[in-house]
């Protein structure tokens, strides 16, 4: 496959709040990795917006053209410079619903128009349809109790979810939301993985890669918090939905989250 240049990676995955002088447009770029569960070699590629087709739509068309074996499951990871727009979010949800053998996970370097309600709804639609959306970022320090294949703090999340899990399942079932498989990759660096697998390293870059990755990680922390605030809206919707269904008293999730 054609690889990105180090300059393209540095400029387009730049997650600073504003672009310093000289100004340049930060374009939509999508890097994808398709991994068959039978252990075959992953398929990688990258796409950008072309005319009226966003990179996400081109990605959907690309996967469709591969003629994948629908009896085999595939894990698909996408690294995006910008999170999907509402229209692309809907197209991705429809695509995954029609292709249950694909398990898609999205990582974005930046959030696109994150302050607009319809763009927030698009992100929530993806997450509510078993298409996890996260912000790219280098992993933090792992605790001694963190197991391989878990995210740091995953055990605490599981414990909290167990307190409301039964009523949550009833609510989701009534809403006819898909409860497909959710996979948790091992603790790796999304920026590092993208740098190592999608960038041409034949020519030495004009910057220090290690320092660049540290800078991206530092900038990502505020973006991660912003996304979590958006996701918290879905928790409020769940609480209200459980109450309206009269499934019994519901322990507020906010109190569970703040218990520590």
TrEMBL record:
Provide ranges: composition bias, Polar residues.
143-157
| Class of enzymatic activity (EC top level) | hydrolase
UniProt subcellular location: Cytoplasm
Q: Which stretches does the entry tag as region Disordered?
A: 142-162
* Catalysed reactions, semicolon-separated: a 2'-deoxycytidine in single-stranded DNA + H2O + H(+) = a 2'-deoxyuridine in single-stranded DNA + NH4(+)
Query: Pfam families of this UniProt entry?
Result: APOBEC3 (PF18771)
CDD domains found in the cross-reference section: cytidine_deaminase
Enzyme Commission (EC) number = 3.5.4.38
Query: What name is this protein filed under?
Result: single-stranded DNA cytosine deaminase
Organism, by scientific name, is Macaca mulatta
